[in-house]
User: What shape does this take?
Amino acid sequence: MTLADTAPAPHVDAEELAQARREKLMKIARWFLPSLVLVLAILAWHLYVTIGEVPHYILPGPVLIAQKMVEDWSILWPAILITGRLTILALIMAVIGGVTLAVAFTQSKWIEMSFFPYAVILQVTPVVAVAPLIKIYVDSAFMSALLCAWIVAFFPILSNTTIGLKSADHNLEDLYSIYGASRWQKLRYLYAPTALPFFLGGLKIAGGLALIGAVVAEFVIGRSGTGLGLASTLLEASYRFNFGRLFAALILISLMGVVIFAIMSTISYLALHKWHESAIKRER
Amino acid sequence: MLKPRAPLGQRNALLKMSHVEKTFRGDVVALKDMNLTVNEGDFISLLGPSGCGKSTALRLIAGLMKPTTGRIEWTGGQSAGDLGVVFQEPTLMPWARVQDNVWLPFRLRGKSYSEVKDDVLEALKLVGLEKFQRAFPRELSGGMKMRVSIARALVTKPRLILMDEPFAALDEITRHKLNQDLLALREAIGCTVIFVTHSVFESVFLSDRIVVMAARPGRVIRELEVDAPYPRTEEFRTSAEYAAHCRNASDALHEAMGEPA
Assistant: This one.
């Protein structure tokens, strides 16, 4: 018997080793594959434009767009700030409005009965149809755009939070009653934490919608040369056949959406990962 | 709280239900003319088929609903923290750590954690979970969650603990263990328990009084005494005495269900 034979065998069997290898590979692939697709797509685009000699006013190549991104940064950066501010403010207002209304709805059946239909009407009326009206009645272009984005973003928060506030465990509600909890205590210690995962789900949707609302509002309201954010820059560029700038603005809007989604997902993870099923990794 | 339990028949009344009835929607009689005196130190099982009103009786005692007629009176009146409740499910707040779940009854009375920390830890120690105070409920097994639920019911040192089929969802092994632990707990703190169950064996093992109930309308049909001394151990489960009590209770239950014994 050699020493190697007597050494304790590792406690992982072949199956687990294979599993670990697979997981490692998956981890790398998760980043590598989409990056590869991106690089290949840009390359194909570039070759198509250069070899096919496609004029830039039909389809600008990635090189031109990159150039425009740098050249026009002094235009694009302020536009990013405006659209970003618009989106974030609309989202904050949506959170305040949606949560307040949801609490009011669940605290009083009368308030819910009175106002819920109008919240639905506000939601189902396309914001594109309302935006011109808002533009007439609200002087500031920024304020009217904000209003549009808010209308779009607030409903998912309202509806999710309302469902969440109503989802408390009935036995826990009884327990709170037995221990003589006040309305406020029930809301604070029972209904609010119960609603949190629902609210965060709504927040994720609302983040994307706030950006869409901001873009739509800029299209409709910013058209008259008031020069708002990225979307009106994009629109303006299309009028001038400046397709390099148009694509640059489009890419920035997309990136903004991705960033917002990432932020919302992070908030959600941080708030829930300790206790909520949705954020817990299952052991196999 | 540490006082020896008086023998059956010499205990002071803690709570009296007299002619209590509960009717739903005007015609469904959930509970008919229930009379029950709960004494200090009693371990009462409400035993019966589903629909016999045992859970209704528990909800009435808990004050979650008012009787249609009749009265429920506490000797010396009821004050905050007199009542602890354990439901069929552990009913823990998943977002709160074990210690915060147990803190809840105090928290709702405006007491800060540091004020009652010793009580919380003592209750967790009683159920053998002092090492898990910082855990979240999802990290615990079904039996452990139920222990936390029991600790929460005990933490205010209530005069009466209501348990609504608390172990029904657990496996047999865990259930037997918890049955024993519950008895040990009761010896340690001397509380009064009303325990709803549909298991003859569980009711005989745990209680000194069994109230057998029948359905449609929900009513009490028989009261049995199990005079076997505490502490009861696993040996009691296999004794002739236990078997005899089980047969009695089982006969009464058959009667309750309208079947020949």
